[in-house]
Design brief:
Blueprint (H helix, E strand, L loop, with lengths): L1 E6 L4 H9 L6 E8 L8 H4 L10 H4 L4 E2 L8 E4 L3 H14 L2 E4 L15 H4 L5 H9 L4 E4 L5 H8 L7 E10 L11 H4 L10 H12 L2 E3 L2 E3 L4 E8 L6 E9 L5 H9 L5 H4 L9 E3 L8 H4 L8 E9 L4 E8 L3 H17 L16
Parallel strand pairs: 1-2, 1-4, 2-3, 4-5, 5-6, 7-10, 12-13
Antiparallel strand pairs: 7-11, 8-9, 11-14, 13-14
Length: 358
Amino acid sequence: MIDVAILGATGAVGQRFIQLLQAHPWFRVAEVVASERSSGKHYAEAVRWVLDGEIPPTVAELVVLELTDSLASPIVFSALPAQAALEIEARLAAEGHFVFSNASAYRMAPDVPLLLPEVNAEHLRLVGRQQAERGWKGGLVTNSNCTAAPVVMALAPLRHLVPQRLHVVSMQAVSGAGYPGVPSLDILDNVIPYIGGEEEKLAEEPRKMLGTYQDGEILPLEMTISASCNRVPVVDSHLVSIAMNFQNPVGLESVQAAWEHFEAPANVRTLPSAPNPVLVVTDAPDRPQPRRDRLTGGGMATVIGRLRAAAALDGIQFMALTHNTIRGAAGCSILNAELLVSEGYLSGTKAPSAIAVR
């Protein structure tokens, strides 16, 4: 097994990492890291567990480390806020750890992969550029804003159709605000039509993720994106409504076929956390729905529905949904780490055949 550390382990996304790694065939949670307030305590004492089920016994007894402590684990999963991530993630990567971050701090850095393995696995090569130019012994890989995940997954099979303009309206779950999240008197019986910083991220991150790796850099996809982000009274999963057009008129049948035939690359398809299928396309008139569809593919699949013509744009419109703290956060980071290990970045080994299980 490969030892991993979790930064921000007592928060909601940190807890999701622990839950998803509980029976992982490659990774074992060996270190949990949190703020000074929690350090020195056993994890079970330091955390207010908010997920279903119980804290895994092997993690409950771990002593919480401080963010300034040295770590032994070669892989580090980060659920830190962006400001804290700026210094801590870079320091750990320089020291030789491979850091997989949910924070926004480095997402748009030109030498940092913004990775969704089914879509842009080749962007992982940017780690070599980091090591060459920054002198890091390890590396840093990010995953996207949780609302960008269903957008990028839906658009990836359509890149050959040359998308031009895209407008996204999001309906984002309260768990996306962390714990305790949005005050109940603000969100119950209500929709909040503003989430700070989200619209800007949604307008730029998909272009990088859908871009082309060439000679050590990412050439962003040429596409105009506008976004309107809303917080809604749903616990988990983000639903997006997308209207878009293409360079040339595209029939609904072509879009449907592209989605239904989409597969992850061969080097991603067999990774432990990879869903199969990646996309689930429904023709039900009232799907996808958060409560009914968020755990499709163990929460790692994207569910798409309501495909129809958008006459005003001479294009198409549809809905897409993913689980925000699994596919949009911890689960994607874990899949990113699996890809890095399988490609031999960690001590020159490949997984799973070269990993000794103990």
